[in-house]
Amino acid sequence: MRRALLSLIAFLPAAAFADDSAVLADIDARYDDTAAVARQLWEWAEVGYKEEKSSALLQSKLDAAGFDIRKGVAGIPTAFIAEYGKGGPVIAILGEFDALPGINQDDVPTREPIEGKAAGQACGHNLFGAGSLTAVLAIRDWLEETGTPGRIRFYGTPAEEGGSGKVYMVRAGLFDDVDIALHWHADDENSAAARTSLANRSAKFRFHGQSAHAAGAPHRARSALDGVEAFNMMVNLMREHVPQDARIHYVITQGGLAPNVVPDFAEVFYYVRHPEAEGVEKIWTRVEDAARGAALGTGTEVEWEVIHGNNPLLINETLATMMDEKLREVGGVTYTPAERKFATKIRESFDGDVPSLESAEEIKPYSRSLGYGSTDVGDVSYAAPTVGLRTATWAPGTSAHSWQAVAASGMSIGYKGAQVAAKTLTLAAIELYTNPDLRDAARAEFEEARGEDYEYSSLLGDREPPLDYRD
């Protein structure tokens, strides 16, 4: 009888050990702090590996709460780990904070760029950092009040946008002793569905030629821009002959300054994506061959530098179904009249049909699917069992990497979505601290999914962090 009772206790949810309503009320009381941190990160909008102020702000909040902090980990000045607690399982919560270059917007529902501002939180990473911070502070209080053995870690992870900051942290072994890793992301809906991502790799291809007067002596020149354009044409012809789920995109970052000067240098920045790392590798080999062919055909020389690379997310449905339950317990985002007015106005800038405003209050049905984005969380998911969620931080219908996302990320709609994430992450962590059978099941699924002979390999090779990739 006693053994049966102990077995039953092992499967009881965290609510049996602590009052979830008190935990959620604690996070509600932190709303102003969440909003203040999110707003400050939004205003700074620091790009990858340049997030000195943003990283320092998050560290200062954690230091004040008694966390032990390791700064500048994995050779990245803005990366850090903050830990609180002792013994028990190690639960990691990821926190991003980098912005996107080339896009900015005021916190208003009509297109109003901020003069002189070169970047914006178009993917909501200011909310990611602030919401995760609120979660770990609430979990710290819960560990302290209940005396539960366990450690909570905040991973300050810079340069997610094309810099693969987490990959270097994984490569350095910083997740090796983590039992479970939790993350979340800004979005226009609430979902904890098990959605994987595309593997990807990027590189800057640099062509070198010979300058001359474009009219007076063109025969003496070899155009580096011709090399770039020939390369792009060859890759564009490839698009017909790659798998349907593959993605290839590029921007010409340098192509010359004056039409009457044949450029002796040009650069193009490429991304290649595929659902599997092996698929990226196969397409990448062909892209490199195209670069060589373009250089040969235009009489130029080419070199390239791999900038970043991410493995696809490894789904863990044991954890995903648990996270889905916690998100449904928390619920979605309810707008005030002022927020409804903001969301209604911003939706006038969208094309086509968009979800109703009420969808921000709903939780999407649980499912398993392929997402077409890429993230360095994928590499974390091969180091430890990992699970995440998305919350409605933007007006329904908003796309990431848009001015509409920047606008909502800097006001209360975004802050409310971050609070939903903080609550859900906190409840999930409490469940994991108090339910060893759940942790064991997640670990078993993780080991099976990785495979018996798994060895970690990053898609960016052995290069050092590209701290200047946003220069």
Share of residues in helices: 25-40%
Biggest sheet strand line-up: 1-2-6-3-7-14
CATH architecture classification of the largest domain: 3-Layer(aba) Sandwich
Q: What is the CATH level 1 assignment of the largest domain? A: Alpha Beta
Globally, the shape reads globular
Distance between the termini: 67 Å
What is the chains' assembly state? single chain
- Main structural class: alpha/beta
Q: What is the CATH homology-level superfamily of the largest domain? A: Zn peptidases
- Largest β sheet strand count, sense and barrel closure: 6 strands, mixed
Uncertain ranges: 1-18
Domain count: the total is 2
The number of helices is: 14
Query: Nearest-angstrom radius of gyration?
Result: 24 Å
Helices and strands, in order, run as: HHHHEEEEEHEHEEEHEEHEHHEHEHHH
Number of strands: 14
Tell me the fraction of residues in β-strands, as a range: 15-25%
**Mean pLDDT value:** 95
* CATH topology descriptor of the largest domain: Aminopeptidase
Region (Disordered): 450-471
GO molecular function: dipeptidase activity; para-aminobenzoyl-glutamate hydrolase activity
Pfam families: M20_dimer (PF07687), Peptidase_M20 (PF01546)
Biased composition (Basic and acidic residues): 461-471
